[in-house]
Design a protein that fits this description.
Elements lengths: L1 H28 L2 H27 L14 H29 L7 H28 L3 H30 L2 H30 L6 H14 L5 E10 L2 E10 L5 H18 L3 E9 L12
Parallel strand pairs: 2-3
Antiparallel strand pairs: 1-2
Helix pairs in contact: 1-2, 1-4, 2-3, 2-5, 2-6, 3-5, 3-6, 4-5, 5-6, 7-8
């Protein structure tokens, strides 16, 4: 968690740097498209700050009021990302509308484009870092920021090329068209982030490959039991919750059944990071598929 928080703090600094560069590019050119690019960076700053706060909350240990911990706080950060993205897109559409009524030529485009290009390079490098570390640390907040930055990098490259064409051709409305396209791209990014975050808040099951791995581990370690059924999983931030029913022979001592449970839990914890396992032991009369050893 300390490493995740450190990356999130660095993310705030990088977002502020990129915002400053893009805003300077807008001031140098007067381009609405570059303004839209800068506005997207304001969203990046806001969401990076939200990610820091969410990570600090999610790191709090479980307590009496929240016995399952605070891991879902990261999903709220990702929801904030989505909402801010939508707000930014609406603001860009407004500027496009006003600019369309009174288009004006771009000023000093070369210097502005070079500054914007520098911001894009910084963003691209940091985007790779965020996506890699977000997946490695299984942090929804970092991953959401990384994915949003990826759309920012792609749209910035398109804007850069388009504004250059608009400046050389003198077609001022091309700049506005580009800004509108950026806004549409931002909206799509916001929808993607919101969709994934809502899935986490609604206790979405783990991915199919992770579920298959969990099944294999239970099957391998449940020797002595009759079967396992009603396997359920859910994911809250970095934490994976697994619960299932384990059917054992009716005459098996409690201590022996407990040993099987411990063996399964130890194997799952060794193979699946941040997993919490709950096993309900049942007598053989509760078997749903009698004769099937496990799962």
């Amino acid at each position: 968690m300390a490493q995740t928080s450190r990356i999130a703090l660095i993310n705030v600094g990088v977002s502020l740097l990129v915002l400053g560069l893009k805003y300077v590019a807008f001031l140098l050119t007067g381009s609405i498209a570059l303004y839209s690019d800068a506005l997207e960076s304001i969203v990046n700053v806001g969401t990076s700050v939200a990610a820091v706060l969410a990570l600090r909350v999610s790191a709090k240990p479980a307590d009496a009021a929240h016995p399952y911990g605070y891991a879902k706080a990261e999903y709220f950060s990702a929801v904030i990302v989505g909402v801010l993205i939508v707000v930014a897109a609406i603001s860009i559409f407004r500027e496009v509308y006003l600019g369309w009524q009174d288009p004006h030529p771009l000023d000093a485009p070369l210097r502005g484009l070079l500054v914007n290009a520098a911001a894009g390079v910084v963003n691209a490098i940091w985007c790779v870092v965020l996506l890699r570390e977000g997946r490695r640390l299984r942090s929804p907040a970092l991953t959401a920021d990384g994915r949003h930055l990826m759309t920012d990098v792609v749209s910035s490259a398109g804007v850069l090329a388009g504004v250059a064409v608009a400046a050389m051709s003198g077609w001022a409305r091309l700049d506005l068209i580009l800004a509108g396209l950026v806004a549409l791209n931002i909206l799509w990014s916001g929808w993607s982030v919101l969709k994934e975050s809502v899935g986490g808040l609604l206790d979405q099951a783990v991915p199919a490959d992770t579920l298959s791995r969990i099944r294999r581990i239970i099957a391998a370690e449940a020797t002595g039991a009759i079967e396992a059924h009603d396997l359920r999983t859910r994911q809250a931030g970095r934490t994976i919750f697994v619960d299932f029913h384990l059917v054992v022979p009716g005459d098996m001592p409690v201590s022996e059944a407990h040993t099987i449970c411990d063996r399964i839990e130890d194997a799952l914890e060794a193979e699946v990071a941040d997993v919490l396992v709950t096993i309900h032991v049942e007598p053989e009369a509760k078997a749903k598929q009698h004769g099937v050893p496990v799962l």
